[in-house]
Structures
1.
Amino acid sequence: MTATVPGLDLDSPPFDLLDAGQKARVAAAVDLGFHPGGTRLIEAGQASPHVFVILKGRVQASDPGAAGDESRFADYGPGDLFGAFAVIAGRARHRYTAVGDALCFLLPAAVFEALLAENPRFAAYFHEALSVKRRLLAERQQPSELSRLMLTRVRDAQLAPVHAVPDHTGIGAAALALREHKVDCLVVTGDPAGAGIVTRTDLLDALTTGGLDASAPIGALASRPLRAVRADDVLFQAIVTMTEHHIERVVVLDDEKPLGTLGMAEVLAHYASSSHLISLRLARAQSIDEIADAAGGMTDLVRQLHAQGAKMSYLMELVSALNRRVMARVFEQVVPAEHRGKLCLLVLGSEGRREQILKTDQDNALVIAEGFAWDGLPAAMDAFSQALARIGYPSCPGRVMASNPHWRLDQSAWRARIAQWARVADGQTALDLAIALDARPVAGNAALFDEIAPSLRALGRDHILLRYLAEATLSKGNPLTWRGQVREAEGRADLKRGGVFPIVHGLRTLALKHGIAHRNSFDRCAALVQAGALDAELGRDLPQALAVLMRLRLGQQLADLDAGHAPGNGVDVHALRRLDRELLRDALRVVNAFKSHVANTFHLPA
């Protein structure tokens, strides 16, 4: 049985990485120290004889300034560990002072160093704090996906509709039926041997390798007997059935009546996530209501993947891809096919960067081909914005939407607007330009945007404009104070303002300066490192920091939704788990380092 110390949790990070014997050594070596308010526990730049774990009270970390002043870095509370870097490196990054009386567990430096030498995972936790802590957290959150397959019932999967045709139906007519009903297979009836199933692949093979013409009946092509699973079977059984019979699709029966069909794609999509199912439903949607119904599962998809510890960059890419499908399908509903080649729908801001997660404000615009005139365009764009609002994308408070004529321009007008952004330096101009720099085509004729994109990239040669944009990276203040000192709105820390925005906007401005065309923040960061515009260490830490900040913000947003509140950017820092507080501290330290880099690059006061 592992030795215990009252008040010291050896089963929480990072001590949970130790084996039972190592935990026992910690329990035997640890001491308890009382520190009156004002006591300096560790001085910046000096080594520490202990690693501290707070039992009661609060300890403040600060950075001493050249003029004798101090800037607060963070506050540590019960359960928090500090001083590890001072032991490992022989010097502390910060000054640590007790705020009021504090009780701390004291782990001798020699014992801590021995544990680091013996246990590589324990050592990695401290040497590569941000990335390793994130990986450890993801490992703990990852559920058994096999158990999901063993527990999920077939009826709970998203089934494709059943469409039946008689066996004398011609191949050409069957292909039209597949397209019309947006299905991948047909149930074939009328044969004394019983019903069968014919797939899109069966029809294609019959025409290309079977030598049949489009009028040939499909009865002989159907696979029999009809393979089926019960609605109450588990998904794992459906996989077994399809694998055993070398087929890609089965019919789902409920009391002997066809309920739908189930293919390997849907099974595997349900196994990994419901993203493919949403995509299938969007493809089949024939109205705004059906699009809205399909998109309604996206929040549950985000919740599921977040609970599994999905990598944030992948999660954002996936959700943004689905968002683009939604917007493209709505665009197709409101714009007649004959006009789509003269229009290009753009998404801006976080959607353009593919970093959108939950449905937030609409940020979109429209590029119109030179000389194209359509009286119905204003009404179509109004219908587009209204449809998105119905689906769950709120209207933008600043009206950055294609329904606003300010964001609906022909190519010449867009070039004039871009030139105006270069001439006028004010807050609204900077905001408009920033979101436009992330523009990405999602529907219509993308070539229309390709012709004006070089005008945006050319702004990177304007050093005055770049400096003005860079100033915004430093304008949001420093969020690195805790427990009452945190810059809060209604008791919450705004991680977007204090963390996400400086990273995203700083990378955007640097990318513009260096002629990097990537829009996604993670891609921009990698390209900046490759171009030598960002050192490798900061380039490694920035994506990790951005992922941490966005994961914590998403977790709070999902909790707010569950409580019936609108999701925002504020996070209740006090409610975070201990490991999440450590990750947040690490991430915000990276934010400050990046802001210093931006200030140095553009010769701005820090």
2.
Amino acid sequence: MCGIVGYIGFRDAYPIVIKGLHRLEYRGYDSAGVALSNNGLKVYKKAGKVSDLEDFVKDIKLSGTAGMGHTRWATHGAPSDRNSHPHSSGDRKLTIIHNGIIENYATLKEALIAKGHTFKSDTDTEVLIHFIEDIQSSTGKSLQESVRLALNRVVGAYAIVIMSADHPDEMIAARKGSPMVIGVGKGEYFVASDATPIVEYTKNVIYLNDNEIAYIKRDDLLVKNIDNTIQEPYIQELELKLEMLEKGGYDHFMMKEIYEQPRSIRDCLRGRIYPKQGMVQLGGIKEYVEKLKNIDRIIIVACGTSWHAGLVGEYLIEEFARVPVEVEYASEFRYRNPIITSKDLVIAISQSGETADTMAAIELAKEKGATIFGICNVVGASIPRLTHAGVYTHAGPEIGVASTKAFTGQVTVLTLIAFYIAQQRGTITQSKFIEYLTELDEVPELVERALQSNDQVKAIAERFKDSANCLFLGRGSSFPVALEGALKLKEISYIHAEGYPAAEMKHGPIALIDAEMPVVFIATKNSSYEKVVSNIQEVKARGGKIIAIVSEGDVDVKEMADYVIEIPLTGETFVPILATIPLQLLSYHIAVMRGCNVDQPRNLAKSVTVE
């Protein structure tokens, strides 16, 4: 959600900034802009894509060794040229780019208008840069101090970069509740909202912490907190590789990431399972073994696809570890007064590690004394730093907005956690444990086989690409898979889709069934198989078009369904991972056939860093 990139050094800034904005397009945005320092501040911005901005400036000579750029996802003010970032102060000597929301902007704006300030946009961001200008002009303080004073008075979340016409050799960056990373080069620095624009130029990065301000020059970096105390920044090396950010011959990042799942799941398992010994090792949480033996309850908090993964985790943990589990939308959890004690374990799931609602839920749970584990994909993100312990999914960068390999990675980690807790609490026999781990070790290969259904799924997509609605139904741990399948379809194809427990169909959704309604069943061989077969018969009796995900070798459902997609036969525990694969492919092909922007669906952002 929104993207920031900045550069100060010895190279031309514009090519670095514009390439960085392209790298950040996956985050979701509706406008783009750049600011360059060259005998004053030059600002160019445009509603639309980064390519529209490039067309807008193609005949302008752009130079300067300091610059910054922004892709905006609209919050305050509709997408438009005037609401695009960067925004400037009244005297045009300061300019700012900003991710986040300034919640008290209206009060600040009213006071500034009373002082004679005029505004050219509807944004909270423009209010912030005017506020900084006002402090500087009314107090005579330095720009550095004026920024610090302003940030002490604003309420909300922000990642900001500020440039000044009077200080062309300096850039100021700050964060609170929104990510910010600084790339460290030789005689140059890079600033971005994540590491994707930086990896091409340097592997050394600093992740700013909340309430920190970085004062950046070409050959110097000073970090302070908003109380004006100097901080010692920690430089770490990026694991990210440039080739991970390319499509690698695929038409879309989403398709590449679907096909990366055998590798990403294998990377998630590597060094963590030992089937022959019947052992799971999770180094990130091993210090909490005693805690795990004595917890009363697990609460999983997440949003979107991560919430669906959490629902699968609920089935797995309760089945194997015999600990009660509750799965909560982080956005709702944070606004309740939940009953949490020190005997609770809270597991926070987020692909990006920057989801605002999930971070707020973590803070709430910590205040109430719970132990917090994180499941995250991005090393160095905020959530791993906020939690007591955790496990990375190691899925690699996920550029497509619709989550694919992150979901299967999260489910894989939750499976490992379920087994790990069961191992510590003694709720599973050693022989069974060896059996399950042996099956789990084979899952990447089974996913590879599941991907072989692509051509068949593509043919089914051709039949249903013009549907107006779609139902996804499953039972047990396949119910969250149905939810995820429905979410994928509506996210990228804009077809209305709903996921339901198959048994709930008779409690309302069956009224929608007619000859035009495609109904997708997860009907694999498991403990609910006969019940799902009955549900399929109910849909068939009403003329619905049935697409069934079945286990290899199935006979019964094949006789009833209009279309059948087989997945490799596996234990019920691992069905959610395999059954997800054809649903991802179905959504992808339908979206492509409808001419939708698969990697950047409308109105969506990859990382939701504001409420």
3.
Amino acid sequence: MTGLEQIRILLIEDDELHIELIRRAFDAWQSLFDLSVAHTLQEARTLLSHSSSGFDLIVCDWRLPDGDGLELLDPSLPLPIILMTGYGDERVAVEAIRAGALDYIVKSQDAFIDLPHVAQRAIRQWRAIEAQRRSEETLRAIEARYRLITENTSDLIAILDEHHRFRYVSPSAMHLLGYDAESLIGQDAFDNLYPDDILSGARYWQDVMQRKRTTATFRYYHASGSWRWFECDIKSVDIDGAPAVIVIGRDITARRELEERLLQIQKMDALGRLSGGIAHDFNNLLAVITGCTTLARELIPDDHPATVELREIQQAAERATALTRQLLAFAHRQKFDPRPINLNALILDMKKLLSRLIPETITLETHLEPDLWSVRADPGQIEQVLINLAVNARDAMNNGGILTIATSNAVIDEATDHLYPSLQTGEYVRLTVSDTGVGMDEITRQRAFEPFFTTKKPGEGTGLGLATCYGIIVQHGGAIDLMSEPGCGTTVTIHLPRAHLSQSNTSDSTAHTADLNGSETILLVEDDPAVRALAARVLRTHGYRVLEASNDDEAMTLARLHTPVHLLLSDHGIPHTSGTLLADRLTLAHPQIRVLFMTGYMIEPDSLRRTATDAPTLLKPFTPRELLQKVRVILDA
């Protein structure tokens, strides 16, 4: 209290003599106290109810004409009260203190003289009590606020002691971990840590004790039996004089799964590019092997000793060609002839064939959506996917089981697109092929679509079945996913974009001709010398004039010097440019020229960019007869 402060006191007393004695006691303290008097409880209540009263202290007699001072001990009246009693009424005064009075005095002249000091002491005590009360209210408000946060947060909040035992766990543990928060109290937090993360967890624990704050990412066991990924902020603190650690953890399992999906997509894309490049180079080699072998067989009689070896070479080349076809399917660069089809009809047509692929111990079941949308797909490729998946399922169920093929309509929207990062939002047809076989562990599942990866014994599989399925589905603009656990079977889920019936089939048909000879001029552009030499030899043998070039500059020069050129026979991929760009330049200068492409891919990445030229493609490896037939068809068109 300062000298500028004035304390307003309400004196409630009906004895005028006592009032006068009290007034005299306060006369010497007029600068500090402002004394008001009420003779009855009613009068006092009137003064207290006035908005401008602003009293700081009540000094009240116990016995009043209209009641007793104890009636003023009301929680709604937050003022300190000093009760005055007569001699012998100390028991009542003590009861008044228990009921909420701040102090009491026994009436006497000395007590009245000392009343200003009692009042000052009472004000200080009251203000201390009020300060403590406000602090407690603030603490309760803070506690309630933090309790509200911890009890409603989606993150996990925990307090651990120095031995990493739980001292507090937020209620979110039930949602995040499947455990009641109270059941975790006292348990070692490391008990449910993923085994491979325990060493990391111990190291982080040492770090947090030394550096006071750190972060950690680890897997924690969920009551359902699964492992959940958590990203945690960890801080070392002192609680009640003992070291402790506050952990705030966020479940990032969905994010980790999405990251793994994206990494898998990137890895498969990289493998696809590699496989496509390898297959392209092999097809160039196979084109030479196949062509030269065919020419050699035409030069020798059937009873020649080398005929058997040449036939073996041809058969080996055919097997190698089939292998590169599968690699190109994985790289989604195979010949693509899409058309609107109904998967239900395709599955029903294949049901007899699929039944022959599996033994009698395996039951084939189909669950087909009655009003299934159409998809735009190459039916031959989708049949290949179903056959590959059925064979894999058969091999996983040596002791019998159930193979289930199901279809349904599906909509990928903003709520579900995170599950399929490679798909755009829209309408899809979902195809699932599931079995009750042995299943796969996580490492095998993650590598299942890699080319040449197989868990079968040597000679039992090439490891290209699922890789081929992957390439086919991706080329269709869809997505393929595989879920499996050891002992729980495998489910392959495929999404294909919905097709509208207005989409037309753009596949080409190629006629055959009996006469394979000609006299036209052909500009042959091929950077592989062996393939170029073979093609030139085959064409010249059948009467054609062949101009050979290894790149676009040589081709343009030859076209200017030797006119007319009737046909451009070019590889899709040539140095510094592409066959399609070269064709565009030549057809612009020589509109009459015909175009035929060769490729080691079954479909080139830039083939959709053709502008001036929309020419057919001859797939490597090809036989001499296939080359001659295609050339003759193009020239005669």
